[in-house]
UniProtKB/TrEMBL annotation, chain A:
Species of provenance: Dubosiella newyorkensis
UniProt cross-references to SUPFAM superfamilies, sorted A to Z: Periplasmic binding protein-like II
Keywords on record: Membrane, Transmembrane, Transmembrane helix
Protein name (database record): Sugar ABC transporter substrate-binding protein
A Pfam family annotated for this UniProt entry: SBP_bac_8
Automatic annotation (TrEMBL), chain B:
Gene Ontology MF annotations: ATP binding; phosphorelay sensor kinase activity; protein dimerization activity
Catalytic activity: ATP + protein L-histidine = ADP + protein N-phospho-L-histidine
Domain Histidine kinase/HSP90-like ATPase: 340-431
Protein name in the entry: histidine kinase
Transmembrane portions of the chain: 20-38, 58-76, 96-118, 130-148, 183-200
Lineage: Bacteria, Bacillati, Bacillota, Erysipelotrichia, Erysipelotrichales
Signal peptide (from-to): none
Alphabetical list of Gene3D superfamilies matching this protein: 1.20.5.1930, Histidine kinase-like ATPase, C-terminal domain (3.30.565.10)
Enzyme class, first EC level, given as a word: transferase
Domain of life: Bacteria
Alphabetically ordered keywords of this record: ATP-binding, Kinase, Membrane, Nucleotide-binding, Phosphoprotein, Transferase, Transmembrane, Transmembrane helix, Two-component regulatory system
Length: 424, 436
């Protein structure tokens, strides 16, 4: 009996303490933590991100009295992954946070992200249809939506129209293919001052990733093993070899591009916009005219769309899933904020372009990109995520470069490389 | 037996201390390791090694400390003398499993402690309880196994925190951890072995005692049979002697007298008359002798000690052979009972005591023998026991017999089984019985 009494005292004191704690907790405002990085989402300078984020937060706090949103300022993109992993290890993961593509697979594996399906299903205001379906599909895990796309930064092809006009070559339309690219490159690559060294080039900065996108190469099979011995892969390598051979061993430089001696150069949307800020339109490439085309594929409208996506997700450990969902929606679903993102030059909105956002189309037109081009790119299947842990990624990169350089039998090398990578 | 419990308690105390060390080792390595990783800026590469998002290490540390404190508070109160309660065990399971969950099932050491508490209880268990304990032990062990549960409930492996430090520190930590867990396992095995040996010995000694009891029982039975036989023989001899001394004597006298009558009836018929008178006297004497002999066959005690003494003797005998407490309250003036009355009262009380023990399982019987306050010419005998009584009484052979006997001495018998069992007899007394 004495023991029982003692125990009931212990029990009741625990209950009272937790009730008090709950009361104190209830009195304090709810704090949502936001994980963002600043200073340009795509490694290009940008000044307006703080203002944009602060504006969205202010609006959110106004709509949700008693809720405050906090974020750590001053984290750059390069430090962001490491900062996030610190927070995850400490168990203080932000409630809502930006997600860069490289971390997505790790977070999927660790279960860092909250399954958004229940929130989406219970939210009548959420319209899946306003998104380009491809942008949603990458942020899903076994059929569950685990993050929403906030902005996209697809690859595009910069075309030096002055050079093409000078060579008498018509400018290709948006449905051009890699064969068109090769033909034009072949025509423009030549030694203009006849000094024996090539001084006008077809293309600058075309990497094997771009070629893989063009040939729909998927180097990982469904189990995550490397599968290199396949026709599209070989075609892509052969194509890269041929393209390289056009330059007769001379590599064009950035200066060649800037001075208008290169016909084509792949470039991300963000790079493009940063060098071409609306509304001032100060042209970096001032000594030639240019325009943008989609990246060519081996047939029109096929191929993957390369580039990167920026997502936002909710922590699986959050205590305030509904509030977090509202905050997430403020960034990713609110039409006004999405327009702000576009107007600030941060990236392309994952929303479908239609009549309802004519001002966005207008913005694109003003920076020299047709909205039909944006639409075309966004409708393409996104590049399959090839998150490869080190050191396999380094080996893959150097081996593919080696393959392009070498004249060896490609089949044999591929089999060996596949074996080597799968044993890593 | 006490030495056994003391040893088990000491070993168990060792396990309790060890478990504290093991649990806090895991919690602190997790806490310090997280800080170390962040300081070294290697959190991302560590994160890629994990299979699931880790818990807040500070929460794990504080939670483990708090839960283990509660666990110890709960466990140490179960000493040798406290009764074994299933409720206590369930509480222990819950606390232990809370710790196991906080540590992401990195260690099962505390489960071993709980299993010890389950299988070494302080009292013999029923079969059903044993099965429950076995099932729960297995469930708890499986439910706290990382390798198994990880497939269904993904969680991070706390053991990977041990290898993040410099190779020297890591190997010291790993060594320390294996040492602690090894000793804990060893203690567990020792306790189980000790428990099994003790169980075996206990069983052995019980078997021996049973054997001995059986032997004594057999002897006792033989002896009882023998003494019964002897008593029967003695009784037969006594009866034979009585018959010889009384009836034999009288009948012989009668036969001799009748022979004399046969001779005299022709010659001196008037003498036959006196002779027959003599024979009649012999017959009367014979009858008296026979009555005397029959009286000698009454209970010996009654003959020797009178009713009060005989009752006390019988009570002592009952108390000696059973656990029942019998009180006799004798409040009667000096009285000389008729012998039949003594017999009937003695038999009635004997029957009541037998019933109280046999049917009522009573532990206390009170007997009052006193004068009736309302009627000075009447005495009352009350026998009250604290047994289970009987709500509705169906008089059996014993009660019927008692009633009939009481009625032969003009008495009445009442009984009631609502509170234990009460028998009350009212018996009228004759003037001559009061001893002035």
């Amino acid at each position: 009996m004495i023991m029982n009494k003692k125990w009931s005292i212990v029990f009741w004191s625990i209950v009272i303490v937790s009730l008090l704690a709950g009361l104190i907790y209830w009195q304090t405002p709810i704090v949502l933590r936001l994980g963002v990085f600043i200073g340009g989402s795509w490694n290009v300078p940008s000044a307006s991100t703080y203002e944009l984020i602060d504006g969205i937060i202010a609006q959110f706090e106004q709509d949700h009295p008693g809720v405050r949103v906090q974020y750590d300022a001053g984290i750059s993109l390069n430090d962001y992954s490491s900062w996030m992993s610190d927070k995850i290890l400490e168990g203080s993961c932000p409630d809502v946070f930006l997600l860069i593509e490289g971390d997505l697979d790790l977070y999927k594996k660790l279960g860092v992200l909250k399954n958004l399906d229940p929130l989406i299903d219970s939210d009548l205001g959420f319209r899946e249809i306003q998104y380009n379906p491809n942008t949603l599909s990458l942020a899903s895990d076994r059929g569950h939506q685990i993050a929403l796309p906030m902005e996209c930064n697809p690859d595009m092809m910069l075309v030096n129209t002055s050079l093409l006009r000078q060579e008498g070559i018509p400018i290709p339309d948006e449905s051009w293919t890699i064969d068109d690219l090769y033909t034009i490159c072949q025509k423009v690559s030549r030694d203009k001052d006849k000094n024996g060294v090539l001084d006008q080039f077809g293309i600058y900065g075309y990497s094997w990733e771009h070629a893989f996108d063009a040939f729909n190469v998927e180097i990982l099979d469904s189990e995550g093993a490397f599968q290199l011995h396949q026709d599209p892969f070989k075609q892509a390598i052969t194509y890269l070899k041929e393209l390289k051979d056009l330059h007769h061993g001379v590599e064009p430089t950035k200066e060649d591009l800037d001075s208008g001696k290169v016909a084509f150069a792949p470039m991300s949307y963000a790079e493009f916009v940063t060098y071409n800020p609306y509304p001032w339109r100060i042209k970096r490439y001032s000594n030639f005219d240019w325009q943008c085309l989609p990246m060519p594929a081996n047939s029109s409208n096929s191929g993957f769309s390369g580039g990167s996506f920026l997502y936002m997700g909710i922590s699986s450990r959050t205590f305030f899933s509904d509030l977090s969902w509202d905050l997430l929606k403020a960034f990713c679903c609110d039409t006004k904020n999405q327009k702000e993102i576009v107007f600030n030059g941060l990236g392309i909105s994952p929303f479908v372009l239609d009549e309802s956002n004519g001002d966005v189309s207008l913005y694109y037109e003003q920076i020299g990109i047709s909205s039909s081009l944006i639409d075309l790119i966004m409708r393409k299947k996104p590049r399959p995520n090839i998150e490869i842990d080190p050191p396999a990624d380094l080996i893959l990169d150097s081996k593919i470069k080696e393959l392009i350089e070498n004249e060896d039998d490609i089949d044999l090398s591929l089999i060996e490389l596949e074996k080597e990578l799968n044993n890593e | 037996m006490r030495a056994y419990y003391r040893t088990i308690d000491r070993l168990r105390a060792g396990m309790i201390v060890l478990n504290y060390a093991i649990i806090m080792l895991y919690a602190s390595v997790c806490l310090i390791g997280t800080k170390y990783l962040i300081d070294r800026q290697t959190s991302l590469s560590f994160l890629t090694q994990l299979s699931h998002i880790p818990k807040n290490p500070l929460l794990v540390f504080i939670g483990c400390f708090g839960l283990y404190a509660l666990f110890v508070l709960h466990v140490v109160k179960n000493t040798v003398l406290t009764p074994f309660l299933f409720r206590d065990l369930v509480m222990e399971w819950i606390l232990a499993y809370g710790i196991v969950l906080l540590l992401n099932m990195a260690t099962q050491s505390i489960v071993l402690l709980v299993i010890v508490d389950m299988i070494c209880p302080r009292r013999p268990l029923k079969n059903k309880e044993i099965y429950e304990i076995i099932v729960f032990s297995i469930l708890l062990y499986i439910g706290s196994n990382y390798a198994l549960m990880q497939k269904f409930f993904p969680m991070s492996d706390l053991r990977s925190y041990f290898t993040i430090f410099s190779s020297w520190t890591s190997s010291i930590l790993l060594l320390f951890r294996s040492l602690l867990e090894g000793i804990n396992l060893l203690l567990f095995i020792i306790i189980i072995a000790y428990f099994l040996i003790n169980q075996y010995e206990e069983k052995e000694s019980i078997a021996q005692e049973l054997d001995m009891v059986n032997q004594v029982n057999a002897k006792l039975r033989n002896y009882a049979a023998l003494s019964e036989k002897i008593a029967q023989d003695n009784e037969r001899k006594r009866i034979a002697r009585e018959i010889h001394d009384t009836l034999g004597h009288a009948l012989t006298g009668i036969a001799a007298g009748l022979d004399a009558c046969l001779v005299m009836i022709e010659k001196k018929p008037e003498l036959v008359k006196t002779q027959l008178q003599k024979i009649r006297n012999v017959v009367t004497e014979g009858i008296q002798d026979v009555r005397g002999s029959l009286e000698k066959l009454r209970p010996g005690a009654l003959e020797e000690h009178g009713l009060q003494g005989a009752l006390q003797k019988m009570i002592n005998e009952f108390m000696a052979v059973s656990n029942v407490e019998i009180n006799l309250s004798w409040q009667m003036p000096r009285i000389d009972f008729e012998k039949t009355k003594e017999d009937v009262l003695f038999r009635m009380i004997q029957e009541c005591i037998t019933n109280a023990i046999r049917h009522g399982h009573a532990s206390m019987i009170n007997i009052w023998i006193q004068m009736d306050q309302n009627d000075p010419c009447q005495m009352q005998v009350i026998v009250h026991d604290n047994g289970k009584g009987s709500a509705s009484i169906q008089p059996g052979y014993g009660l019927m017999q008692m009633k009939e006997r009481i009625s032969t001495i003009h008495g009445t018998l009442y009984y009631d089984g609502s509170d234990g069992f009460v028998c009350k007899a009212l018996i009228p007394l004759q003037k001559g019985e009061f001893d002035d």
